Each structure stands twice: as C-alpha cells, then as structure tokens.
C-alpha cells in the first residue's frame, strides 16, 4: 500500500488487465485532484467493468478526470458510483464510446462535461444517446456541456433533439452549451423552445446547418460559424423576434451573399457582429437599432465598394457622438476608380472607425494593386483624375442632350401640323371608318376658309352663287358654335364638310387662324380621307410665287387651283368649276 502523498495530479495508462489492480494502487492518493486515464476495456466486455472501483471512494478531493486516447470506453449507469465528488469530466480521442442512460446521474457536483470524438471514434452518438445523456445531466450541477464531433452521421434520423435538450436543461445551471463540428445535422425550426435562463454561451458552429430558429432570451454569446445558412438567412433570422440580451453573434463562413434586412432587429445589446469569410457585396441590413455595436467584422468578403444605401445605413450609427464602432473591411477586393471614389472618400472621412485603415489596398481598373500605407494618396490621385473625367462627362452629357433636343425639335417642327391635327382630332374623340368614306354623309358641302378682310366677297358672292342650288356652305361667322374653342370649331367644320375651300389672299397668308385652317384641311386629306384631295384653293388676289409659304407653293405645284377672274363672263365659268370641284 502506498503512503499518503501530497500528489494532486496523476496520469495513468491502463489496459484491461491493469484496471482491476488500480484500486489498491490509488487508494492512498487522498489529495489527488486531477487524473488522466488511458483505458481500453475491450470490445467484448458486455458486463459492467468497474474501472473506477471502490478505491476511488477515498479520493474525496478528486474533481477532474480525463479519458484521453482511450480504446473502448463504456459509460454504464454505475461507472461513476465511487467518484461522486467529480466536477469536471473530459473525454477525447476514444475509438469507441458507449454512453448508457443515467451514466452521469450519480455525479451531483458535476459542472463541466467535454466530449470530443473527432478523428478517432468509430462509433458515435445518435440522437437517442444524446437524449439519455442530457437527461442524466439534468440531475447534476452542469454548467458547461461541450460536444464536439459526436454525431453519428450514418443514422437514418439525423434531427438534432434541440427541443428535448432545451427542456431537460431548463431547470439546470447550464451556462455554456457547445455542439460543434458535426455533419448531416438537421435543426428543427417548427417550434422554438425557450433556452434555459442560465444559458449565456451557445456554440453551434461547424455543423453544416442550413436552417435554424432559436429562442434566446438570456444568451449573450452565439456562434453559428461554419454552417450553410447563407440562403436561409437571406430571408429569415436565426432567432425569433423577442427581447434579447445577445451581445455577440458570429455568422462567419456561412456562404452568405445577402442578409435579411431586419436580421439584427430587437437585439439592442449587440456589441460584436462577425460576418467574415462570406460573399457579401453590400451592407443593406438594418443596423440602426444597434446603439451599442462596437465591432462589425466584414473581412474576407466580396465587397469592392459600398453603394449610397449601404453608406447611409452605416452613417446612421457613425454619426452618433458616443459611437465607437470599429469596422473590419480587411481582405475585401476594394476597387479604386472614379465610380468608387465617393466610397473611398467616405472611408477616409470615417477613418477612425476602420480597423488598420492605413493598410488598406485597392485595385485599379488596369488590374494593378495600390501599395499599403498610401490610401490617402490614392484618394487624392483619384480626385484629380476623376475631376477631369467629371468635366468630360458633363460636357459630353450636355452635348448629347443638346443633340437630342435639336433632333427632337426638328422632328416636331417637321411634323408640327400633323401632330397638331392628331391632337385636336383626339381631343374631339373623332371616330371614323375609312372604308366607308364614300358612304359618309357630311353636314356641309364645303367649308369656306377666308380672312375677315375678304368677308364681303364670301357673303355677297360665295353664298349667293353656291347656296342658290343644293350646296350648303359652312361660314365661320354664321355656323361656328358660340362658346366652343375656336380650334374645336375649325376641326369640326373641316371634318363635317366634303371639301374645304381656301380663299387665298395676302391677308389670308398673314392670318394665324387662316393658315391653321389650311394646314388642318391638308392633314385631313392625308390622314383621314384615304389620300383623297379635299382641299381646294381659290386665289382671289394675284400673288407672286415667292410670296407664298413653301408648303403652299409645293401644293399648287402638284394640285389644281383656280384664280378669280373678276369679269362677268369669267365669273360664270369660275362658279361652275367650284361646284364641280365640290362634287368631285
């Protein structure tokens, strides 16, 4: 038997044959606080193997035990029967581990359980074993539960029992819960069970999760790094909208290209946000409620610049006098050109808010990279270059605008009468079937367009010689509807008359409304009468060709007209020709 010793730490490497003689070896180490065991009881052992036998009952100071690089380690319901004082258990690098329900129920003082099966274990835990293990931990004083790479990926049902784990730990003193480095894990999102009030640290990193929904009222630290939440977080949040005390959230390495705009709403205590190692190009998620935000980690993303919306979004926080926000944009492919100059200038103005601002580099249009520690010089260079470019763009824009304006003016002027005709026709809601042109009944046989200075000729001669028969004339002084717009009366007269007769004199050419009537009648012939000539010109005065407007001169070159003879014999022929023209 060994004499009592002050030894507080002891490392033993044991095989199955040495397990049974361990009690007599260790019984006198009453001051022992920590022990590390390398145990392999063999895979063929089907009964309880008491590798922590009665000899451990005397080790009342033993608080920590570590199973390291073990072979087959079964944890039965009474494996810790003689070590009730344990507060810390560490299990790692075990090839095979088998946890029975109630394995930890005899450890009322247990505070820390760390289980790491990465890289070694052939047999890991399914959801039912995790359920049983956590159920037994509910009878302890557990504060830290760390499970790394413990998930049995070959199982057919791979939904992590989050709701059950939450409910079983609800009345414990759990402070830290880590479930990391597991693959093929499906997280339930149908119902969100509140987390234990004592839980402050939740680490679910490296689990390949593609959906998640948490109810975190008291948690302060949340790590979701290394999952596959990018698509999900584009339209959803990682937690329900409720009162939150969250101070740190890590969404790094989640293939995020964009985030739900309201993802950080109702989290007023957030101090650190880590979204590094993603594919973000903009910062369009709302940060305005985060008055306590201290660090925004955007490093290793795809940001080449921030647009006006993103800058405005960040400025809402940065403009607050007491704000100490630090933004990490390191290792983003920043571009330095005239298009991004406003962003670079904003960065320089807010330089105290950027981590390692002086070390920033950016890429020019020619592909070259600016040297570090010269960011201010880069901005100054671009300001000079882009000023000349801006002047050139302004001049070019003015030139293009002027060209378009001139071209548009020319087109409008060229087709001014056509446009005016269309406008006034649409205004009157004129509807006509062109195919029934010959069947149309007109109110008047002819509309007489004349200058007021030629009124006597129209009243004394035209009416007398043309209305004595069956012809009905439209005379504006007699037939226009009082109170209507004069242009409406003109369009109505032209459209309701078989022909329009223009009495051409110098006063006619000088009159705005006479020329308006002439051009509207010309448009009527072209666009509403299937090209049939409805305009007839009567030259009441001798007018030289150079005195005529170009459009009128071109018209008399292609169409017949008649001159007033002003003699008794010629008058008879003159009036007969007008009657024939009206009926043609």
What does this structure look like?
With about 575 residues, this protein is α/β, with parallel strands linked by helices. Among the domains are: about 340-415; about 430-584, Toll/interleukin-1 receptor homology (TIR) domain (Rossmann fold, 3-Layer(aba) Sandwich). The chain contains 16 helices and 20 strands. The protein has helices at about 15-20, 20-25, 125-135, 160-170, 230-235, 310-320, 340-350, 375-415, 415-425, 455-465, 475-480, 485-495, 505-510, 510-525, 550-560, 570-584; strands at about 10-15, 35-40, 65-70, 70-75, 90, 95-100, 110-115, 145-150, 175-180, 200-205, 220-225, 250, 270-275, 295, 325-330, 445-450, 475, 495-505, 535-540, 560-565. The strands form three sheets. The chain has a 13-stranded parallel beta sheet with strand order 1-2-3-5-7-8-9-10-11-12-13-14-15, with no helix packed on it. A five-stranded parallel beta sheet has the order 17-16-18-19-20, sandwiched between helices. Strands 4-6 form a two-stranded parallel ribbon. Helix 7 (about 340-350) packs antiparallel against helix 8, helix 9 crosses helix 14 (about 510-525) and helix 12 (about 485-495) packs parallel to helix 14 (about 510-525). Residues about 15 and about 430-440 have low confidence and may be disordered.
Could you give a quick summary of the protein structure above?
It comes from Mytilus coruscus. It is built from 16 helices and 20 strands.
